[in-house]
Amino acid sequence: MRVAVLGCGYVGLELGRQLAESGHDVVGVRRSDEGLEAIEDAGFEAVRADVTDAESLAAVPDVDWLVFAASSGGRGADAARRVYVDGLRTALEHFAARDDAPERLVYTSSTGVYGDHDGEYVDESTPLDPTTEKTRVLAEAERVAREVAADHGIDGTVARFAGLYGPDRYRLDRYLDGPVTEGYLNMVHRDDAAGAVAYLLEADLARDEVVLVADDEPADKWTFADWLAQQCERPEPPKRTKEERLADGGLSEAARRRILTSKRCSNDYLHELGYSLRYPTYREGYRAAIEAYLPGE
Residues in domain NAD-dependent epimerase/dehydratase (predicted)? Predict the structure, then answer.
């Protein structure tokens, strides 16, 4: 099949590699020279375009599958809205108007849309309750990915990612040095985030559905940090309760909300659909980082 990955960054590059290795015709779309070089280095075609600029999207060839994996670059809610909501609408309108329009869209979202559930489990049926402006934008973009896509005759799927980690994103020092604030980590390795999207496309699953993409074990942060320290032959890091962290001065309101937001993400539906995780827990997923960290490994 022909596939375009719009915003072909951290997950998109791995997704493109996996799909190209499976024999699909993949195009990665980025704006910058550096981004285009990364796509070419990954072994598939690179096209310069901007999801917020309909005219630039004309450079992208016709495709059967469209993956929207663009990033707002870590900026605020306004930048997020411009990319995730306005850019997604622009892309949908542009590609749907073609004579050879795509049949499927996968939009990559975040489990941040759930808000706080006091440490309880959440899944695809859990009502969304985003607590920040940016996560409210993400929730709106999910609606665009399914409802607006359907209005244009495209079947939309939302892949709702837990916290991404993997090569270049292990953040060992954060947990080894501390202090580590209590709470839960909901994670998914980059290769599984990409692998799940590839699987949903190739197996023709979850049209007009949401799929929560997380690993098998929501991790207690203190337990994870102590395990990581032991594996890296370091002392256990200092720890803070939420109350101690919130007592610190200088926290933004968004940071306070993140600290108070607690949930555990269930991947039962992903398993029901038949996807097999390459890294079922952080123990498998962090092995390469630990081996690289230890002297003489």
Answer: 5-170
Q: Within the chain, where are the H helices?
A: 10-21, 33-42, 77-80, 88-96, 133-143, 149-151, 172-177, 190-202, 221-231, 242-246, 253-260, 268-272, 282-285, 287-293
Work out whether the CA dihedral 125, 126, 130, 134 comes out positive or negative: negative
Six token digits for residue 245:
């962290």
Work out the angle at residue 257's Cα, subtended by the Cα atoms of residues 256 and 259, and round it to the nearest 5 degrees: 65
Residue found under tokens 């607006």? 148
Q: For every one of its 297 residues, what pLDDT tens digit does the chain have, with 9 covering 90 and above? A: 999 999 999 999 999 999 999 999 999 999 999 999 999 999 999 999 999 999 999 999 999 999 999 986 666 889 999 999 999 999 999 999 999 999 999 999 999 999 999 999 999 999 999 988 989 999 999 999 999 999 999 999 999 999 999 999 999 999 999 999 999 999 999 999 999 999 999 999 999 999 999 999 999 999 999 999 999 999 999 999 989 888 887 777 767 777 888 999 999 999 999 999 999 999 999 999 999 999 865
Q: Which helix (H) or strand (E) is 219 found in, with range?
A: strand 219-220
Q: Structural domains in the chain?
A: 2-166+187-215+266-280 (3.40.50.720)
Amino acid identity at 28: G
Q: Which two tokens stand for residue 279?
A: 């890294």
Mind giving me the DSSP string for 145-158? IIIIHHHTT-EEEE
Q: How far is CA 192 from CA 12, 68, 189, 279, in A?
A: 12, 17, 5, 7
Show the tokens assigned to 17: 């590699």
